[in-house]
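I need you to check the entry underneath: sequence plus fold tokens. Let me know what the token row says about the fold.

>
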Amino acid sequence: MALPASAPDATRTEELGRELDRLRAEIVTGRGAADAHYIHTVIAVQRGCEVAGRCALAVSLLPPAWVAGTTLLALAKTLDNMELGHNILHGQWDWLGDPAIHSTTWEWDFATPAAAWKRTHNHQHHTYTNVVGRDRDLGYTVLRMAPEQPWHPVHLLQPVFAALLAPVFEWGIALYDLEVDAVPSGRKSLRSFLGEATTLLRKAVRQSAKDYVLFPLLAGPSALPCLLGNLTASAARNIWAHTVIFCGHFPADVHTFTYTEEEIEGESRGEWYLRQIQGSANIEGGPLLHVLSGNLSHQIEHHLFPDLPSNRYAELAPQVREICARHGLPYVSGPLWRQYASMWGRVLRHALP
């Protein structure tokens, strides 16, 4: 595991774990009406934007209606994907006991089925964050993002792959969640793969029929601009999600790890926290950026506390930063433009041997 020279020793690592556990406990005991009001407000705004956007696109032969409808629908899809779907499926709102926004019942406006995403993201990625060979999110099996990953000539094209992935990100994630690469190795049976592929196909057909057949047909004379508006809104959401996720995981100062199986299994709570801090990066900005990113602009806090309400990450961030400073740990944070440039630098650097 590559650690900074100032990394804490075992005793200080366990103290780090205790401090972060105390922060987590404070938030858990303090959850209440204000948090519930927040998530219900976001749901209301998201639904309002979607209804208004689809109504505007129904008369989108008028250019101002097309611009307004496409913008509102893109906003609705972004909120549904980032601040609602991602966080609800992490179980952040299960404590409310509301079956309408529970991790076991929620399905999102996104190509990949919720169950498949929870398996690859909640379990694999958040358990094995940035461990080469275990965290499949480290390059999503097609990009080389660490020097420990084997290089192949095809990686010379990875800047092109990364750019092409952005506008179709939801479909890339859907195929990734199928874990096709696990079938030849025997980690997944062909029967399981075919069952999951069938579930994905059903979801993909429903998603495509809703956005690209049903609503355009309902728009009548505005069918074509409505279709283009839906395509544009989905692409805008995909590009934004791709940007936020890549900037939270792949800037140059984010560490990767080469743990053995035994080291992973024997990892203490403090060591797990340490890896999450070093394997994530924050994006600095205002409240609107935080909400539209699903508060994944606080990626470090999210990786430390993935099941805490996302609206609490801004409150936790200064405390986590202060703890990192005391323990001599890096706290990778910067404005969007800087993290975006750094991320592309990493993509380009590891495209080469």
User: Anything to note?
Assistant: Residues 10-349 form one domain.
